[in-house]
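Page 47, continued from p. 46.
Same chain as before, 322 aa.
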Amino acid sequence: MKKTYKLLFILVVFSLVFLLSACGFQSGQPTESAPQSQVPSLEENQTGLQTGFTVVDSRGIEVPFEKVPEKIVSLMPSNTEILYSLNCGESIVAVSEYCNHPEETENKPKLPTGEMLNVEAILALEADVVILGNMSAMEDQIYQLEESGVNVIVTEANNLSETFDVIGIIGKTVGKEEEAQALVNAMKEGFDDIRAAVERNKAVSIFVEVSPLEYGLWSCGRNTFIHELIEIVGANNIFEDIEGWSAISEEQVLTRNPDVIITTASPLTGIDDPVGDIKSRANWNQTGAVKNDKVFMIDGDMVTRPGPRLLDGAKELVKLIY
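Result:
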């Protein structure tokens, strides 16, 4: 089990790092979809008006639906969490092997993703829609699904704004636009409440370690939802001058001397004692975080999945920091 979660952790880091890579599609360059002539046309009612609806996904691709999907395959953990938040759990017929929240996902058939994605297995489920992230499948796999007549919604979220957009995309796909907007509003209000609560607190500097030294140090900079969470809780990201997810060095961390260190590693990801590991690193005892015992472990799923639980992640950061 630990080995499985270790692999999951590495894949999560990989996904964050290469969120804009060519594995799925590059920002501004949509994954090639099936020719429009192969997309089922919408039926017309007696008045001559089209029935059904169209969803524009994160690629900018228009995906037509004749009706609200009744059978959904969700191949990205954050999307699965969004679907459950919209009370669509019963419509989900399969999820990715890495979907582990909420608990109900344990009873869903699990499917591999990425290069191991099995197009035939997905087609056998006869789903009305496959919702996946841009790292969930290769471009040719997405094309195969679309060419086979399957509606595919691809999502991408690097920051909070894009996270809210994805919630809206999924909400429209499942016929729950109002519920999706309510979810977005609740998240925004929750973030505003946190900002107000910490407004008078002394700002501290934070280093968020999204990949530990053992796997190669990585952290987050501007235009990432973790960076925005740090700002929301009234703290300063020591790597705010870096764009996106980036590899960093020990020297950079030590030079910037964070007041607080947050790690997303855990025993399940192969690091038995993430906090102790950081404290025992050579020269890290020179940082204010280690000196003042301000090194903490956080549930990585809450802060690395662009979905509803980012609000929970922000609340947890407040508890740890202050």
